[in-house]
Automatic annotation (TrEMBL), chains A, B:
Belongs to the FPP/GGPP synthase family. It comes from Streptomyces violaceusniger. Its cofactor is Mg(2+). GO terms for molecular function: metal ion binding; prenyltransferase activity. The keyword Magnesium applies. InterPro entries: Isoprenoid_synthase_dom_sf, Polyprenyl_synt, Polyprenyl_synt_CS. The keyword DNA damage does not apply. GO terms for biological process: isoprenoid biosynthetic process. This is Octaprenyl-diphosphate synthase IspB. Keywords: Magnesium, Metal-binding, Transferase. It comes from the Bacteria.
Amino acid sequence: MTLPDVAVTEVADPLAEAAPTMELLLRELDRRWPREAERLHQISRYALLPAGKLLRPLLLMESAEAVGGGGPAVVPAALSVEYLHVGSLVHDDVIDGDTMRRGRPSVAARYGTTDAIVTGDALMLGVFGVLTDGAEDAGPLTGDSAGPPPDRVLGAVRVFARAGVDLCRGQAMEGELRGDLGCGLDRYLTMIALKTGALFRAACRGGAILGGGSPAQQHALTSYAEHLGLAFQMHDDLLPYTSDSRTAGKSALSDIAAARPTFPVLLCHAMAGAPARARLEAALGGALPAADALGTVHELLETTGALTAARDRATAQADRAKSCLERLPRSRATAVLAAVADLSVSRDR
Amino acid sequence: MTLPDVAVTEVADPLAEAAPTMELLLRELDRRWPREAERLHQISRYALLPAGKLLRPLLLMESAEAVGGGGPAVVPAALSVEYLHVGSLVHDDVIDGDTMRRGRPSVAARYGTTDAIVTGDALMLGVFGVLTDGAEDAGPLTGDSAGPPPDRVLGAVRVFARAGVDLCRGQAMEGELRGDLGCGLDRYLTMIALKTGALFRAACRGGAILGGGSPAQQHALTSYAEHLGLAFQMHDDLLPYTSDSRTAGKSALSDIAAARPTFPVLLCHAMAGAPARARLEAALGGALPAADALGTVHELLETTGALTAARDRATAQADRAKSCLERLPRSRATAVLAAVADLSVSRDR
């Protein structure tokens, strides 16, 4: 179980109920990526293991279960959403020049740019092999050779491909917004719906389709995922200002250095009067040393009320995510999904 | 028709018969990538248009037709193999630092590394959207709303995903072989079967599956593609030594500078006696200025007979490709495929 223990014990019991699912995912991930000689395989293994939180695979498993069709048959699809996520992170680290990921050297730092690009490609393309080989691969695991029916698998392929392209659109848009404090909250929200929301949507909608959910159930889980994605990213943007940066694993300095417009900063820009806005722009314009800039930004986020407003909006999105679950039959799975929504705005990293 | 005119008139009439297919592909490619505001879309359009030879889409179309199931219904799948190809070229140019592609600035040179990585990702991921949306999208074009049946589309997704991963394996392996003249022909042939062969195989096998070919027909077209891929890459490696580099669009100097072991060079290394081998290693070891190295390599390729041997082996692969076609009913499509095999070892660029 790689979800942080503190969250599991503090937030709710339902997440503890996800433990068997997490163990299944971890066991299967390890089985599929043995230590092998081929370089590309080795690097892929390095990128995937030790695994991260496996949040997206968990969402897929629980979404499938929430509509009555989860279990081992959807494990390959669940892992494939992780490949898509990790493949995009590997490329992200090339793009941003990030040398650390999950507390150890990024693929780019450890193996170089060339292998990082190629490995990211292989992970992303492999998604669709794993999705469509599901029927065969799930066999030995389940003792049941039948994976999801072909029309459901095709539906999942379509959803994953769309999510992958949306993720790229979000990344391209993020590049355009860089340094643009005046981009406005709307464009920022569109960007994070694409960049962060896409894979949450793929996981939940894909799970609902593979699990045989009705159109209404698919819709409910898609909406859940969209609100969850917003809540998750809004909270992520808040982390540097609400917990010490070592715990957050990500520093406000890095956001400032990269001139990344983040949720609280954009809210602050929108809420502030002219003088505060001018100070914010100066702080983020590279005029001050980064540490001083951070102090100024933090102070402005507090005094304008932006920090509180951002926190409230993130919580509201998590609440809306949970309310979407009311359209589904109450089950262990929906309780886990609700707990994930709570966790998305309470985690400290 | 973007295949070089000289090849069409010199080689055979059958290729001229591919003209309507090529026109269909070009029209559809242009329709699907209108000029739009979104940056990622613009860059994708720049990468795709003006189109290259569209050789892989043509192979898919003709393979489908060869088994009795071609036409507009498989156009989306045909275009998707081009997206996979172009996406990988966009990343290749980032990796190799190439600033030119098809006679104009590469995506990386024109838009920068970040957008090139993201655009390549979007093209590769988009493949699976186009493949699975085929049924809907082919509708207006064909006046027939039914695309290929779901089981065939799933088969094609599986083949494309596998091909995509193989392509990456080939690229990673190419990196490993760089500078290693002693890597041996076997490893080189494995590498090009992955790197170049993968997409030819995806195109032909994918076409055979989507067109409803029998397992024997699928196998025949897969074998055709594998031999074609070898012939194509062997000839590609020969181009710098058999035509002037401007026509070839690729220079021997670049292969030498990148310490890329190529087919004639590896053959030469295997065939040469100790003194010639020592001279070859010195020339490719960076000891000489590139132009002098090229002169020496060229001379050694001639005197050891490696150039002739390489040409013979490429032709033999093209012949084997053609012989695979005998297992299919004779048709316009098989004539085009045979002509492509001839072209693969007679083109001068």
